[in-house]
Amino acid sequence: MSGSGLSGDIKAFVGKEVGPGEPLTIYQQDVERFARVVGETAPMYFDDEAAKRSVFGGRPMPLAYPLTNFASGTERDFNLPIGARRRLRGGDELILKRPVLVGDTLRAKTRLCDVEEKMGQSSKMTILKYETEYINQREQVCMIVRTTIIMR
Amino acid sequence: MPESRLQAGQEIPRLEFGPVTTEILVRWAGVSGDYNKIHYDQEGARAQGLPGVIMHGPFKLALLCRMLTNWIGDQGLIRRIRVRYTAMDLPGDVVSLGGTIQSVKEVEGKQVVSVLLFARNGRGEQTVAGDAEAEIAR
Q1: Rounded Cα–Cα distance for residues B94 and B125 (Å)
Q2: Cβ(A64)–Cβ(B61) under 8 Å?
Q3: pLDDT tens digits for B114-127?
Q4: Residues of A with CB below 8 A from B58's CB?
Q5: B80 with A95: Cβ contact below 8 A
Q6: A98 touches B: beta carbon within 8 Å
Q7: Which residues contact A44 (CB under 8 A, 6 or more apart)?
Q8: Residue A143's CB: how many other CB atoms inside 10 A?
Q9: What is the 3-class SS of B103-117, one letter each residue?
Q10: Which residues contact B124 (CB under 8 A, 6 or more apart)?
């Protein structure tokens, strides 16, 4: 825990976990829509035979798909008492433990790892770091996502 | 699968995306579920002290994944990717994405490739800095 001067109310949230939340099933049409918007051209996202020949053995979920598609799995789940008008994403790290395929159902479990306050150029900012595990229907951890959010 | 023999220092094929429009940001909001006003509502974005709507960070991450996926092919997978969003991409920007191989290792019959990544906006600013590790079956 870093960030001296944090209110005790916020400090108390560090290390807390929420979830697993509501499940999200990965549907073929959602993956295709996502892939089209990103401009993906890899046949494995659109064609079953190409997907079977791929290293995934089926249609894979694009890696960035779950980041914001879950109703849960963000720092918002903690209802932190931070009065900030702007919320920006500072960074993400995605770690693939097991491929996720169309038809899988994931749930997200999130832990608040750190809260830090810093003085920016013009105002104070609060930096939140949290880690989300995505767990499939076989209770296997498929992905770990580490996210930094900046509130100011 | 990359055609040439992989080695540190090689650049991977770049991706250019854009120009970014508010419409494409709305489409991204639809498929990603990220409806933060700063990405589609000019007034909402300005009220938060921004110059106007800005591109979503995870959209740029998804574009880097697309670039890597196109490069490693269907016998490769991205094991890890890490990014920092260092500046904003705005409507009108053409986002230029690229990367350079840092190292190549052989692990259990697979090539494990580490890559440094970047994205730049139309004004020459680096807007994403990152790195990734991919496995390619031989």
Answers
A1: 11
A2: yes
A3: 999 999 998 889 99
A4: 64, 67-68, 89, 92
A5: yes
A6: no
A7: A50, A51, A53, A54, A56, A59, A60, B74
A8: 23
A9: EEEEECCEEEEEEEE
A10: none
First-to-last alpha carbon distance for chain B, in angstroms, is 9
Q: What is the DSSP secondary structure assignment for residue A74, as one 8-state letter?
A: S
The overall pTM is greater than 0.90: yes
* C-beta atoms of B58 and A89 within 8 A: yes
Q: And the tokens for A55?
A: 């290293």
How many angstroms separate the Cα of B131 from the Cα of each of B49, B71, B94, B113?
A: 30, 15, 21, 11
**Is the CB of residue B107 less than 8 Å from the CB of residue B51?**
no
ipTM of the complex, rounded to two decimals = 0.93
CA A61, distance to chain mean position in Å, is 14
Per-residue pLDDT reduced to its tens digit, A12-37: 889 999 888 889 999 999 999 999 99
Residue A93 bridge partners (DSSP) = A146, B82
